[in-house]
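Hey, I was hoping to borrow your eyes for a little while. I've dropped the whole record in just underneath, so have a look:

——
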Amino acid sequence: MLLVENVTKRYGRTLANDGVCMSVASGELAVLIGPNGAGKSTIIKSICGLLRFDGRITVGGFDNRTPDAKRILGYVPEFPSLYPMLTVDEHMEFIARAYRLGEGWRGRAEDMLARFELSDKRTKLGKELSKGMQQKVSVCCALLPEPKAVILDEPLVGLDPRGIRELKNALAELKAAGAALLVSTHMLESVEENWDLTYIMVGGRISRTFRRSELQAGESLEAAYFAATEGAGTSSEGGAAAPADSGMQNGAAASADGGIQNDMQNDAQGGGRS
């Protein structure tokens, strides 16, 4: 479902990703972990079509920068980026129009808002929400189109205990329904129960790949991570981090006729699906 082939990304002279190869099949939960500055957010933004890169990325067989790929991809960025002057309800309607969802979207939206305790915040503007509430709206927007692949970058940061529980349950449900999931997180315990495949990134490269069945008896994901990273050199993603992305990072935005436009391909050097 998700295929990354020899992806390289540079910020000027800084090599952030160096020949990265990854794949996530339908019904799999893959974890992307690594030290700060390893290149994780850069590869995620590349997958979601937010950065230009060398190499090849496909989602469901479609080039990741095409509307066909964006229609089946959900993205929860590390930092929620809502439209400040749209209400929570209007964010949901925006996504529904952008993806040309059928009438059933309203019921799904109501269920998700209730699940993440946002029902009483429906008329609140994006700028009026706390960081945790913005993150919940970001999750709801990413999942509303019922994507076949979902990318999540540190999705639990800012969430309260109930929000964390509900997101973990939602990920388990998506996996059971056949979605391909890629989660980048430092909170290894949050994915310990459901992960299938782990990619450890160090210095812009995938240093180790393994499946749950390949761990030694009793070995935890945390132990495997430290075994792969302790003593390994790490490189910063730039001495210059990726420039900030502007607007609502949906992996797709509404065009003038309500469809999917391709301007999310723009390199972030010019300027989380939320």
